[in-house]
Amino acid sequence: MALLHLSTRSAKRCISTARISDRHYHELSYKTTGNPLDVLQYQQTDHKKALKDTRRIENPVHVKMMHAPWNPADMNSVQGTYASPYPDADRTNRAASLHFDGRTVAGSEGWGQVVSDESGTFKAGDWVTLGLSGYGTFRSHVICDKDALIHVKRGQELMNAQGPRAAAVFQLGGTAFRLLHDFLEPKAKGPRIIVQNAGNSGVGFMASQLASLVCSDTAMVSMVQRRNRSQEEMDELVDYLSVKGKNHLVVAEEDLTDKTKVKALKSQLEEISDVCLALNAVGGESSDLLLKLLGDGGTHVTYGGMSMKPVTVSTTQLIFKDVRLRGYWHSRWMVQHMHEREKKEAMINQLVDLVLSHDLVCPMVEVFGLSQVDEALRHGAGRLETPLRRKVVFYCGEDET
Q1: Which ranges in 221-313 belong to alpha helices (H)?
Q2: What is d(CA 224, CA 251) in angstroms, rounded to the nearest whole number?
Q3: Number of helices and strands (H, E) in the chain?
Q4: Share in percent of the chain as helix, strand, coil (round to 5)
Q5: What is the mean pLDDT of residues 93-97?
Q6: Distance between CA 226 and CA 275 in Å, rounded?
Q7: Residue 253 in contact with residue 306, Cβ under 8 Å?
Q8: Taking Cα atoms as reference points, which of 279, 277, 288 lies closest to residue 310?
Q9: 72 to each of 229, 269, 305, 331, 379, how far by Cα in Å?
Q10: Tens digit of pLDDT for each residue in 125-179?
Q11: What's the distance, CA 227 to chain centroid?
Q12: Staple 392 to which of 70, 85, 138, 373, CB 3.0 to 4.6 Å?
């Protein structure tokens, strides 16, 4: 089965003009949790069969999906290790297959076009993105409640301009937006500095740009891991994150292996201002570095745990530096604000406006058809070996032949 190696240019050319076929319904789903490569399977059927709304939603909205990113949360959900952002009493299986009994569809975000809406909230052809997780987006068609959707007002413009890269804007950009909006405290005078790890991740890439674009007088310092990159690859990464990512400084974590180097970097930053906010997506030693760079009274926010290691803080940092440790989970925020449609639409459409004005750059992506699930998962597992990360995005329409 051929891999869809699409450059940004070719992806926009062939995907943005593609029609989502009505001839078939297909999905990526699983019956039991486990390793995605073992349990996640491609299923398809003739779409002439009626789509089954097993939850009997009142006034449902029918959406034809276009693109849906593969996120770490999706992997953890298939593995059975991801928590639900919904209240404990809510046991609804929003991701139930529309055709195959006993199967759960993977995928937590994505976007597409409205086919019909019995609630009268949307018009046929409106572009929408999933504003709530757990609806199983790796399929050609989704049936959901109106509160699960956010209207993307300039959706067709975004599709024409960005193609599959647009799919990475909503959750990655939304997470970055909220991290800055909710945790960056206003400063009466002078510049502000933010430090983050995983600066080359999707959220990190969006956060560094947004810090420059929407936060006045704010500089981002991004830490990345060199791993097995050559010097040429590392230079390429640093250059990309500095120019496209709008970072003030990009630092390899491996270059901060002793107290002297950490102290030197902190002194360098203090010439501008104290670090007021640290964004942690990794945990472990990487999180420790952020805490060492954080200024007195600063806030350390954890929104991911790539290393699978805990966040630890010393008594000295808590008492004498008065650092604040917080957590952020974007899926929970979206559920908590489920009925605040205007607030969520304002956030999404501000991000879209920034993309269309060429100020905000979407992360690079690698596109796969749903039937190419094995190739997509293997690509996703190996993406850290390349200088620049490319996010896996599934094209949910009928595969091109």
Answers
A1: 231-243, 259-270, 284-293
A2: 6
A3: 13, 16
A4: 35, 20, 40
A5: 91
A6: 23
A7: no
A8: 288
A9: 22, 32, 10, 13, 13
A10: 999 999 999 999 999 999 999 999 999 999 999 999 999 999 999 999 999 999 9
A11: 23
A12: 70
Long-range contacts of 312-315 (CB under 8 A, 24+ apart): 312/287, 312/288
Active site residue 135: no
Is 83 buried (19+), middle (13-18) or exposed (0-12) by CB count in 10 A? exposed
| Tokens coding 258 | 């002793």
Q: Residue 17's pLDDT band (boundaries 50, 70, 90)? A: very low
Mean pLDDT (the chain) is: 90
221 vs 271: CA distance, rounded Å: 14
Catalytic residue among 25, 82, 240, 395: 82
Query: In this predicted structure, what is the pLDDT of residue 19?
Result: 42
Q: Which residues does 241 contact at the CB level (< 8 Å), separation at least 6?
A: 199, 200, 205, 208, 222, 224, 247, 250
pLDDT in tens, 101-124: 999 999 999 999 999 999 999 999
What's the average model confidence in pLDDT over 322-337? 97
**Cα 305 to Cα 268, 323, 327, 328, distances in angstroms:** 28, 20, 11, 12
DSSP class of residue 393 equals: E
Q: Which helix (H) or strand (E) holds 375?
A: helix 373-381
**3-state SS track over 22-69:** CCEEEEEEECCCCCHHHHCEEEEEECCCCCCCCCCCCCCEEEEEEEEE
pLDDT band at 59 (very low <50, low <70, confident <90, very high): confident
Give the Cα separation of 288 and 290 in Å (integer).
5
Q: Which token pair is 125? A: 């052809």
